[in-house]
């Protein structure tokens, strides 16, 4: 039995570890239970961080192969060493997960390695990774157990031939062919990695556009065009209905959603990227009568309280977009609610970034969101082909698109496809958070020559006229 804590956190992912650090900083006695053996959860171990390492380095490799001659750079024999390519990823992961462990220690958090289960509403039994069991009692408890890949019915995941993102970040060979089920963010990021390394990738997407929920249709179309140019194939409006991996190649039966005829596709490897689902297995929620919604999410109120008020919940396991930075914001807010009685997350202002090349990033409402809600808007765009820095970089694909209220000029949404879109969206997020108008942005001096000038010019195009286009 461990001494009673002010806060016991189940799950050491972004939601859990950030809450642990924040609570430690607030002078609370905290324990954080994590069963994986390392901290950082999906994001640091098998999600954001390893995927971005592979995306960055596969882009570099692809660029060296295909985009140097026109820059006056002649390269000799270029070879990929897949084992070392993966090692670079592992180095990034282990550096960061160890860093988080250090931060927990620094903030006085007790890190318990094991799987936590509710024994009562205040007592968590932990099956320790090293064997044995302990119990920790919390005045407050935070569920931060995250999510897992949604499996495809009838197609067993082996992480070698039928893989989730976890298999896709650690394949030992470069497959000749790959089918990706689902053209959302995971599907397109992983398709990018393997396509750049030489795999022929086909993305099968049920909807009429790629990018998953939230991506503006105009931007999604532009993205698809650029990814196609890089060698990816797409089958939109097409649903995978069943799969069979008993033969040498994995077979998939697909149905065209809009009147086409059914067909069978096959590939060496199939990536299942049809979404993620909340993870509550083994948590013992049934022991305390906790309710889940129809999608398996823990039900909470606006202060992250479950129906048992001292048990709260944040991150992927509850409502909202499954994003690390959303989990992080909630983690800080929930500790503030516990400690001070108030906290805040602006759910209208959570950016999304897809780390393909070019990157795609957005915040706020899309044009179709506004149309669907019959909200009037004004739109302004600026292409990177008219931006001087993009021109010097020979990197001119993409555009910045802004949506604003026609009466007040208040910014309603920003959508960017282009180089460094993921960094540039921070400016849009800050502008929205402060309730900026597009004229405010247009009148803000931006350094020259920078890609961010495209952001300013898109704002000019929205409030009046761009100068350079
Ligand atoms: P998780 O990170 O899933 O952490 C939950 C932790 O709880 C896990 O470590 C688990 O082992 C532990 N746990 C569960 N049950 C128990 C138990 N009973 N006892 C003890 N421990 C338990 N998001 C972004 O914002 N940007 C990105 O670029 C991005 N890239 C991604 C790429 C991939 C391939 C994937 C899969 C996801 C990506 N995400 C990205 C999403 C991001 O990883 C999640 O939104 C984020 O990890 C959610 O954090 P969390 O703490 O809620 O859950
Ligand atoms: P997603 O929901 O974004 O996309 C899944 C796609 O699969 C959808 O477009 C859906 O229409 C399609 N689909 C579902 N069933 C299908 C079928 N039978 N046949 C064909 N298509 C089908 O989910 P994801 O890409 O798996 O990502 C999961 C979560 O992880 C998301 O919430 C995402 O935000 C998060 N994530 C974020 C990042 C990032 O921020 N860069 C990176 C990776 C993952």
What is the CA-based Rg, rounded? Answer: 24 Å
Mean pLDDT: 97
Q: What structural category do the secondary elements indicate? A: alpha/beta
Question: In terms of per-residue confidence, which ranges show pLDDT below 50 for 5 or more consecutive residues?
Answer: none
Binding site for FAD: 52, 116, 145-147, 316, 322-325
Catalytic activity: N(6)-[(R)-dihydrolipoyl]-L-lysyl-[protein] + NAD(+) = N(6)-[(R)-lipoyl]-L-lysyl-[protein] + NADH + H(+)
Pfam family, one: Pyr_redox_2
Cofactor: FAD
Spell out the blueprint of helices and strands.
Layout: E1 2-10, H1 14-25, E2 30-34, H2 41-46, H3 48-66, H4 82-106, E3 110-118, E4 123-128, E5 133-143, E6 147-149, E7 162-163, H5 165-168, E8 177-181, H6 185-197, E9 200-204, H7 217-229, E10 233-235, E11 238-244, E12 250-256, E13 263-267, E14 269-272, E15 276-278, E16 311-313, H8 324-340, E17 352-354, E18 359-364, H9 367-372, E19 378-383, H10 388-392, E20 399-404, E21 411-418, H11 421-433, H12 438-442, H13 452-463
Parallel strand pairs: 1-2, 1-5, 2-3, 5-16, 7-14, 8-9, 8-14, 9-10
Antiparallel strand pairs: 3-4, 4-5, 6-15, 11-12, 12-13, 17-18, 18-21, 19-20, 20-21
């Amino acid at each position: 039995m461990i001494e009673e804590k002010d806060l016991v956190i189940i799950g050491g992912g972004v939601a859990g570890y950030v809450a642990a650090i924040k609570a430690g900083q607030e002078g609370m006695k905290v324990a954080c239970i994590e069963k994986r053996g390392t901290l950082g959860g999906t994001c640091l171990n098998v999600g954001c961080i390893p995927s971005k390492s592979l995306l960055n380095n596969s882009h570099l490799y692809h660029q060296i192969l295909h985009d140097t001659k026109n820059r006056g750079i002649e390269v000799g024999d270029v070879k990929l060493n897949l084992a070392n390519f993966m090692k670079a990823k592992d180095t990034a992961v282990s550096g960061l997960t160890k860093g988080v462990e250090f931060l927990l220690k620094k903030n006085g958090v007790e890190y318990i390695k094991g799987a936590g289960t509710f024994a009562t509403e205040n007592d968590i039994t932990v099956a320790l990774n090293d064997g044995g069991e302990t119990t920790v009692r919390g005045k407050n408890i935070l569920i931060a157990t995250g999510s897992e890949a949604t499996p495809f019915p009838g197609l067993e995941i082996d992480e070698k031939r039928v893989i989730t993102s976890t298999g896709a970040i650690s394949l030992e060979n470069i497959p000749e062919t790959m089918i990706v089920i689902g053209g959302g963010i995971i599907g397109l990021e992983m398709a990018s990695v393997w396509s750049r390394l030489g795999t022929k990738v086909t993305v099968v997407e049920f909807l009429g556009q790629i990018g998953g929920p939230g991506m503006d249709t105009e931007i999604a179309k532009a993205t698809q065009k650029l990814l196609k140019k890089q060698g990816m194939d797409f089958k939109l409006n097409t649903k995978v209905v069943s799969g069979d991996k008993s033969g040498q190649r994995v077979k998939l039966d697909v149905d065209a959603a809009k009147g086409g005829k059914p067909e069978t596709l096959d590939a060496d490897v199939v990536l299942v990227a049809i979404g993620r689902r909340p993870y509550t297995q083994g948590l013992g929620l049934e022991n305390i009568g906790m309710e889940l919604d129809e999608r398996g999410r823990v039900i909470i109120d606006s202060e992250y309280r479950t129906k048992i008020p001292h048990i709260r919940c944040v991150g992927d396991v509850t409502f909202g977009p499954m994003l690390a930075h959303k989990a992080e914001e909630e983690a800080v807010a929930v500790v503030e609610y516990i400690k001070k009685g108030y906290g805040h997350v602006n759910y209208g202002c959570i950016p999304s970034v897809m780390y393909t090349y070019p990157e795609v990033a957005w915040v706020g409402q899309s044009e179709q969101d506004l149309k669907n809600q019959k909200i009037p808007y004004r739109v302004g765009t600026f292409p990177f082909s008219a931006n001087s820095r993009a021109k010097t970089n020979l990197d001119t694909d993409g555009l910045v698109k802004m949506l604003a209220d026609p009466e007040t000029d208040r910014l309603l949404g920003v959508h960017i496809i282009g180089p460094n879109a993921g960094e540039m969206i921070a400016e849009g997020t800050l502008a929205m958070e402060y309730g900026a108008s597009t004229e405010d942005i247009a009148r803000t001096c931006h350094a020259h020559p920078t890609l961010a000038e495209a952001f300013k010019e898109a704002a000019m195009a929205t409030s009046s006229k761009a100068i350079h286009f």
